[in-house]
Specification:
- The protein is an all-alpha fold and 223 residues long.
- The protein has 2 domains: 112 residues; 105 residues.
- Helices cover 78% and strands 0% of the residues.
- The longest helix has 24 residues.
- The protein starts with a helix and ends with a helix.
Length: 223
């Protein structure tokens, strides 16, 4: 039962790094109390993983606009500006530009690479490629739109700070209580209750950890 619960949690979290999978599989090879601590740490770290700086997209769009105003071609501007946004996945778009692929493919790659203004940036690339006109003003406008969006998101996060605090409490208390019970020996008494004890402990641990995981996943929408 415990292993099935860990598999379900692992599928829900979709771990991408080796240590995340190791943390979820810890109870199989470690003592149960150490496994619970490993699960808690793995879930917390995986859900708190770092995100790209939103302002890097702004810097990239501003750099593209500046390169175009300096007389660069659209392909070269898209490639040269990528140095301003190292956290964004611009490798495919840069590769398509360097290899001379059709601009429609470059526009599609731009739409996928820019999380905030991707669709509009892709449209700007298509317009610039089809008309041959200057689109530097369009990229400057997109940079301004992304800046406004970031500021709005910050205000929304500030308004939801109380909700995030509630999510933290609802996440920490169940797992903390489980670890405290383990340290006090309460779970050891339950584990010694024949065949029923380990089953009850396993079901309870899965429910607590699964509930904390769902709470954290839902709480990420507030950040």
């Amino acid at each position: 039962m415990l292993i099935l619960g860990l598999v379900a949690i692992g599928i829900a979290l979709r771990p991408r790094r080796w240590w995340e999978s190791l943390a979820l599989g810890a109870p199989v090879v470690l003592p149960w109390w150490a496994g619970l601590a490993g699960i808690a740490a793995g879930i917390w770290v995986s859900l708190r993983k770092s995100r790209p700086d939103s302002y890097q997209e702004v810097s990239y769009l501003q750099a593209v606009s500046a390169e175009l105003r300096a007389g660069r071609s659209l392909r070269q501007a898209l490639v040269d500006a990528s140095t301003r946004a190292p956290d964004l996945d611009l490798a495919r778009m840069s590769r398509l530009c360097r290899s001379g692929r059709p601009m429609l493919e470059v526009a599609e790659a731009a739409s996928e690479a820019l999380p905030g203004t991707g669709r509009l940036a892709g449209a700007a690339v298509r317009i610039g490629a089809e008309s041959g006109g200057q689109v530097s003003a369009a990229f400057a406008t997109l940079a301004g739109l992304q800046t406004d969006r970031i500021e709005l998101q910050r205000e929304m996060r500030a308004a939801g700070s109380a909700a995030r605090a509630s999510v933290a409490v609802l996440t920490v208390l169940p797992i903390g209580g489980l670890l405290a019970a383990a340290a006090a020996g309460t779970l050891s008494d339950l584990m010694s209750m024949g065949n029923v004890g380990p089953i009850l402990v396993g079901i309870g641990a899965v429910l607590l950890i699964g509930g904390a995981s769902v709470t954290l996943i839902l709480g990420r929408n507030l950040s």
